[in-house]
Write a structure and sequence with these properties.
Strand order of the largest sheet: 3-6-4-5
Largest sheet: 4 strands, mixed
CATH architecture: 2-Layer Sandwich
Order of helices and strands: EEEHEHHEE
CATH superfamily: RutC-like
CATH class: Alpha Beta
Radius of gyration: 15 Å
Number of strands: 6
Distance between the termini: 12 Å
């Protein structure tokens, strides 16, 4: 396994993320991705649809490097509206399970005033550690 979860003894178990991940293998930095499809258009369907496409885009970059969801060790999620994120949490969780399964890397959620692409609601930047073949 390229990334090993780091959970200090005695700490409460985190929900939906790991407190830290130890990288093993090649480190892959994934630039901030947004919810656009392969034609460069933002997907329709609101926050949850953009989140799912955004996460799929992060994984597409990881796959080009020879990795997959379990190789992702860190994600930073930028949202323009934290309340919109919270309202879509059930759908976001379902999308997460479809794409990442039960793998939870180290993560942070940051509310921002805006993203570079007009209409983008979420951007995700990531790190993956991919074991040699």
């Amino acid at each position: 396994m390229p990334g090993i979860p780091l959970e200090p003894p005695g700490w409460p178990r985190p929900r939906g993320y790991s407190n830290g991940m130890q990288a093993q293998g090649a480190l892959v930095a994934v630039a901030g991705q947004i919810g656009w499809d392969e034609t460069g258009r933002l997907v329709d369907g609101g926050f949850a649809a953009q989140f799912e496409q955004t996460l799929a885009n992060v994984l597409a970059v990881v796959r080009v490097a020879g990795g997959g969801p379990r190789d992702v060790i860190s994600l930073t999620v930028y949202v323009v509206d934290k309340q919109e994120y919270a309202a879509a949490l059930a759908e976001v969780g379902a999308a997460w399970k479809r794409l990442m399964g039960k793998h939870f890397p180290a993560m942070a959620l940051v509310e921002v005033a805006g993203l570079v692409e007009p209409g983008a609601k979420v951007e995700i930047q990531g790190l993956a550690a991919i074991a040699p073949p």
